[in-house]
Write a structure and sequence with these properties.
25% helix, Umud Fragment, subunit A, two-stranded antiparallel sheet, alpha+beta, elongated, single chain, 197 residues, Arc Repressor Mutant, subunit A, 11 strands
Length: 197
């Protein structure tokens, strides 16, 4: 259980990380909560670390990280309904949430930035970020990260043909690449994508 002030400090840190991408200093926490004593804030932050709500990496206060449920709350957005990209549909609000932590995060996940236009017809554009689930196996049709000849990596759609592997671009201007299966090592499968506008 958290005390009232511990809860306020935790909410302050969570809000700051959400807006700035890094933790506040003790001075910044004090200014936000109108607490003059750095020692007081230090005690509350230490208490939140001891109770498992925060962790500290490195020596700087900017190295404070959220743990557990607090971290998940950063990645939950309200789901406001559906919108037509064709014929208009009736706007009916829905009271749901989408938990991006459950969808996209995990110890076996990592992010890559896409370079090039070989996957544009799959909706994956140059400079998009793709979320990868690390795995050495994949199914036909999966979009995969593969290592070719232990030297080059690429993002392509997978098609297996017995002892051969076809790596298919999603761009009609490009041709598929076919390799003996022992030259291609699957590194992961695309599970999500992010694009900033």
């Amino acid at each position: 259980m958290l005390t009232g002030l511990e809860e306020k400090v935790l909410q302050c840190i969570t809000r700051y990380i959400t807006l700035n991408g890094h933790a506040p200093t003790l001075v910044e926490i004090g200014e936000a909560l109108d607490i003059k004593s750095k020692g007081t804030i230090h005690r509350y932050v230490d208490s939140l670390i001891e109770k498992g709500h925060l962790q500290r990496t490195g020596r700087s206060w900017r190295g404070i990280r959220l743990t557990g449920e607090q971290q998940k709350h950063l990645l939950i957005l309200p789901f406001a309904g559906r919108i037509a990209a064709g014929k208009p549909i009736e706007a009916i609000p829905e009271q749901l949430e989408i938990n991006f932590s459950d969808m996209l995060l995990g110890e076996d996940r990592y992010v890559l930035e896409v370079k090039g236009d070989s996957m544009i017809e799959a909706g994956i554009l140059d400079r998009d970020l793709v979320i990868i689930r690390q795995t050495e196996t994949a199914n036909n049709g999966d979009i995969v990260v593969v290592l070719i000849d232990n030297g080059e990596t690429t993002l392509k759609k997978l098609r297996k043909h017995g002892d051969r592997v076809e790596l298919i671009p999603a761009n009609q201007a490009m041709v598929p690449m076919i390799y003996p299966a022992d030259r291609v090592h699957i590194q992961g499968v695309v599970v999500g994508q992010v694009r900033s506008y």
